[in-house]
Amino acid sequence: MTNVETKFKILSIDGGGIRGIFPAMFLANFETELKAKGAEKWQVYQNFDLICGTSTGGIMAIALALGIPAKEIYDLYLNNANTIFGTKKGFLKRFKYSAHDRSQLEKLIRDKYKEYHNGQDSEDPLLKHCKTHVAIPIYDLMEGRPSVLKSKYHDAFVRDYHIPAYQAALATSAAPTYFDPYSAEYTDLNGLKKTFKNKVDGGVFANNPTLNGIIEAKKAFSLDLSDLSVLSIGTGHQRFCDAGLDKKKQHRIKYGIYYWMLEDGKKRLIDLFMQGQSQQVQNLISILKNGIDRREVDNFNYIRIDTELDETCGIEMDETDVGKLGKLAEKASIEFQNNATQVINFFGNGNKYLNSV
What we know:
This protein has helices at about 20-35, 55-65, 70-85, 105-115, 165-170, 205, 210-220, 255-260, 270-290, 320-345; strands at about 10-15, 50-55, 135-140, 145-150, 180-185, 195-200, 230-235, 300-305. It is α/β, with parallel strands linked by helices. A hairpin with a 5-residue loop joins strand 5 (about 180-185) and strand 6 (about 195-200).
């Protein structure tokens, strides 16, 4: 197997709304540990060749690739959870309209991205300005198909790198029922005005984008599996089980809209497809890594970091309770402590392809 120092390193970050606090704190611990060890290249973008992120993971992937420290992303989430999600529309209005207005989220992201480009009075950074490669899943309602926004890490990728970074972030995080589909315009690097309309959260097909990253590395960079080291970070999962019983432990017969989207304030349908997709990606990666019967020798480095959110730590994607969010951050720090040695050994030794950006 290829030496750790020469591997192509992929970071993948799941979707999950405000639960992005979990990967943000995990990666803040990663950067802090590298700084404490005296590493010159301590930032995430300096240690990964490709960062994939969906929804909140996409916001974070672009931020990290622009050079924003993970701790600042964590602070942005924790300090502004109520600003982003605190004015949820009333129950009846949510039958017709998305639950949240996007304007505060847009301002926060846009200002932070500018700050680490050329200052908040500067022009918006584009995907072109990412300091390492990014791949950001979205769903294009205009075309009726999935899409992945990419920086220009292959000669064929000429469509997306003109797009303002904040617009890409808002597109991938436009989760159905939480936010409206995202629409905007921008002027490309050739001076042509382009429309960027009706984009939806990439979590509808790739909430865990790890497999996308592996395929991109194999095909865009002509690499073998043995050339890869992959770090995949979730946002906490609530195991979706239903024994077919209602609260009175009687056989459930009502599986309508109320059960799937309204009962107990939970959006079970969204939890189900997000969790199912993420679990299947893990299953497929397990086959790639160790074969169908799990008996093949590892053929690439792969670490999956996630945490189960049980009854004591139930956190919705638009949670605003700072205490709950702090508990999720604590879980991230514990996961880093449990995996620090391997994570630092695999991913803390610099970026192989940085000079190709």
